[in-house]
Amino acid sequence: MTTDTSGLHQLGQMTPAPTSPETAVLERVPNPHADTLYLARFTAPEFTSLCPVTGQPDFAHIVIDYAPGDWLVESKSLKLYLTSFRNHGAFHEDCTVAIGKRLVDLLHPKWLRIGGYWYPRGGIPIDVFWQTGPAPEGLWLPDQGVPTYRGRG
After folding, report:
1. Are residues 79 and 42 in contact, defined by beta-carbon separation less than 8 angstroms?
2. Which member of 15, 43, 73, 152 has the greatest number of CB atoms within 10 A?
3. What does the pLDDT look like over 21-44, one tens digit per residue?
4. pLDDT above 90 as % of the chain
5. Residues of the domain holding 103
């Protein structure tokens, strides 16, 4: 089976990093197994954004789990979208939930959850979790694999 990638504008192209999440282009491709319940996971262990107050960098380990419906997120566009947060000032909660909602708006998945495991600022790690609702019955949900804070290994 081949996938039509003619509508994709970033895959296979030299693409500069977007300057903000608002200007980043997220792309999708048809899911060849839309009739099958399964989980896809993306892990971004070096996610970076900026503190909106101090402008200092904030770091997180982001884990995105979703049960695709008719669409899959194109991974290069997701990488570029996540990279766009490097110059974006927002609180941890805003970054985490905004990423999840943007993916839901694009993909209309059967289910999605996102875990933002943020490294300490001021001595307190902030972990942020959001999901679209209960997981579909029969969906295998592995642990996100990020330890509670102890230096985050």
Report:
1. no
2. 73
3. 999 999 999 999 999 999 999 999
4. 77
5. 30-131
72-105 pLDDT, tens per residue?
A: 999 999 999 999 999 999 999 999 999 999 999 9
pLDDT (average), residues 109-128: 93
- CB under 8 Å to 3, separation ≥6 — which residues? 29, 30, 32
Question: Which CATH number do you get for residue 45?
Answer: 3.30.1130.10
More confident residue, 17 or 117: 117
* 14, part of any domain: no
How far apart, in Å, do the first and last CA atoms of the chain sit? 40
CA distance 149 to 2: 43
**Residue 64 burial by CB count (10 A; 0-12/13-18/19+): exposed, middle or buried?**
buried
User: Is 96 buried (19+), middle (13-18) or exposed (0-12) by CB count in 10 A?
Assistant: buried
Give the total number of structural domains in the chain. 1
Question: In the numeric block, which tokens belong to residue 125?
Answer: 């790690």
Residue 11 has pLDDT above 70, yes or no: no
Q: Which residues are catalytic?
A: 51, 58
Please give the single-letter amino acid code of residue 32.
P
